Amino acid sequence: MKLPGFAYFEGKIVPYSEARVGVLTHALNYGTAVFAGLRGFWNAEKSTLFIFRPLDHFRRFIQSSRLLCMDLGHTPESLLEATMQLLREEGYREDIYIRPLAYKADEGIGVRLHNLRDAVSICALPFEPYVPNDTNAHVTVSSWRRVDDNAIPARGKITGSYVGSSIIKTDAHHSGFDEALVLNQDGHVSEGSAENVFMVRDGVLITPPVTDDILEGITRRSVIQLAREEFGLQVVERSIDRTELYICDELFLTGTAAQITIVTRIDHRPIGNGMMGPVASRLRPFYDDVLRGRNPKYAHWNVIV
Ligand code: PMP
Question: Left, alpha or beta for 243 (phi > 0: left; psi -120 to 50: alpha)?
């Protein structure tokens, strides 16, 4: 993986090699950091880099930080401005991934959230696909469970809880699957390691509600709106049983990194006819055009660098 040239660190843009923390940093020892993941899409015809819904991402970032009692001294707008400064310095002319991080920066011992300094960094690097097999993924239902809202809230993008995501992803990988879905503590389908999940049953698009221990995905929100407004689909947010995944007509994952990743097999069972279904076939290219600034109706979702 190619490292970035620069980072936003301690309030200014510095060479990436200078954006360093000590091994005693609280966040490194206790998982007390929150992050965001944004994408920049290079549109070659327009010679333009578009960032997708950055203010929505930064709003969620600040909400996540509040769950860890952080005061970042930033607004979504000031975080976007810092990102813009960074991207102007980097000068990327390709698809990129942007990683803001807010972390408990003190170096020392002590499990707590209070009386600690909060710091923000932002890096951007060339994008590498998250689920390589993104039109034909084979997914498993993990034997692990999703963190509960009353343990570590999944609606916050908290670094410590990504241990759970890492476990399900690696176990899936070792068993030959592309990705895993995880059930919450009461046995309903929650989400993937870094994606929300949608299924189609009898023409209705169904996704777990935000109360089923999911991250409130920005791709999820966008897909719900597009499905309703552009394709006239009925979209229902309700709990999903594991076995519904085995009998549904279509299944796909959504996320900033995964975009719309099509699942065609789950636990060795084909989904529908084992190929990308009609709903996903329409949504996927439409969404890609939106991301790359090719659809003027959704131009307000893209910020030009
Ligand atoms: N769930 C989890 C656990 C994630 O890490 C992500 C990626 N941010 C998502 C869902 C999808 O969220 P978004 O569409 O905002 O990227």
Answer: alpha
Q: Closest by alpha carbon to 233, among 207, 205, 253, 199?
A: 205
The answer to whether residue 259 scores a pLDDT higher than 80 is yes
**pLDDT digit string (tens) for 5-49?**
999 999 999 999 999 999 999 999 999 999 999 999 998 998 999
pLDDT exceeds 90 at position 263: yes
Please tell me if the CB atom of residue 152 comes closer than 6 angstroms to any atom of ligand 1.
no
Centre of ligand 1 to C-alpha 109, Å, is 31
Indicate the pTM of the whole model.
0.96
Q: What is the mean pLDDT of residues 55-79?
A: 98
Give me ligand 1 centre to Cα 236, in Å: 19
The one-letter amino acid at 4? P
* DSSP-derived secondary structure for 174-186: HTT-SEEEEE-TT
Q: Which atom of ligand 1 is nearest to the CA of 222?
A: 14
Beta strands 204-207 and 235-237 are: parallel
Contact predicate 213/154, CB 8 Å = yes
Known catalytic residue at 157 = yes
90-119 residues labelled b (16+ CB within 10 A) or e (exposed): bebeebbbbbbbbbbbbeeeeeeeeebebb
Cβ of 191 less than 6 Å from ligand 1: yes
Cα of 7 from ligand 1 centre, angstroms: 23
- The CA distance from 131 to 191, in Å, is 14
